[in-house]
Automatic annotation (TrEMBL):
Organism placement in taxonomy: Bacteria, Pseudomonadati, Bacteroidota, Flavobacteriia, Flavobacteriales
Highest taxon, organism lineage: Bacteria
This protein's name: Membrane metalloprotease
Organism: Aquimarina algicola
Length: 260
């Protein structure tokens, strides 16, 4: 049995702030019976995975295995916007493919990150093969354990090619008065968490300038997608239905590590 450290970077909502925190830093057993799967079960911060995702040096294509609990699928608009974000940052000459499918509920909500990892064990079917690198994204039908009335987690990057989106939470937020569209919240969460897989900020992709925040893992440039807390301009979450973008310093980091 291999022990893998689950270091997560989470996109959270708190009043009018949307941000991210690395509040799960535990050891968790993940069993690797097949050596071919080990490359997809590495702790965040490993420097090789961001380069492999960004460049075409080792992998010329990317496949996203997007698994949703039935009834909690992401909007088509968010999936397309997410793919556009990836195409703008990655060199994958053989293309980026998003495979979507649904599964039954685990019935375990609210979730610990260890439970999310166990669900991945049961549901993930695609792993790196040949020139194709894969990422697993799970849309959960509930919230993350530890959420409160004042702060909730929207998503977490918890292994080098693994992300969970707490779709149940996103839908509750989107239903509130003056909230952005669900597609906007989904897109912001997907882009933010995947950018952590790309090594931002300073978690596998080296800094080209001093723009990491004091607590680490996030950008200190106001209004950047990778801020630990993003304050929107109006309403509950902010900028209407405009998704925050990476700032120039984050983009410079990715470009220096093989990306666009």
């Amino acid at each position: 049995m291999q022990i893998i450290k689950l270091l997560t970077y989470c996109f959270i909502f708190s009043f009018i702030l949307v941000g991210c925190s690395d509040d799960d830093d535990d050891n968790n057993p993940i069993q690797n019976n097949e050596p071919s799967r080990s490359a997809n079960r590495i702790a965040l911060g490993n420097p090789q995975t961001p380069k492999d995702l960004l460049s075409a040096d080792n992998f010329t294509s990317l496949t996203i295995e997007m698994v949703s609990v039935q009834g909690f699928e992401p909007t088509a608009e968010a999936v397309q916007a997410f793919k556009t974000f990836l195409e703008g940052r990655l060199f994958k000459p053989d293309g980026i493919t998003i495979n979507q499918r649904t599964v039954a509920s685990s019935g375990e909500a609210p979730f610990t990150i260890e439970e999310i990892a166990e669900i991945e064990q049961d549901n993930r079917t695609l792993f790196n093969q040949g020139d194709d690198i894969t990422v697993y994204i799970y849309f959960a039908d509930g919230s993350r354990g530890g959420d409160s009335s004042e702060q909730v987690t929207l998503g977490s990057a918890y292994l080098n090619t693994s992300i969970v989106i707490y779709e149940g939470t996103l839908r509750r937020l989107a239903s509130r008065p003056r909230s952005p569209l669900l597609a906007t919240i989904e897109t912001a969460t997907l882009n933010h968490e995947f950018a952590h897989l790309l090594g931002l900020v300073n978690i596998g992709t080296p800094l080209q300038s001093d723009h990491e925040d004091e607590e680490g893992g996030h950008c200190n440039v106001p209004n950047c997608l990778m801020e630990a807390a993003i304050e929107f301009a109006s309403g509950m979450m902010g900028i209407g239905n405009v998704v925050p973008q990476l700032d120039a310093q984050c983009i410079a980091d990715l470009q220096a590590n093989g990306g666009r």
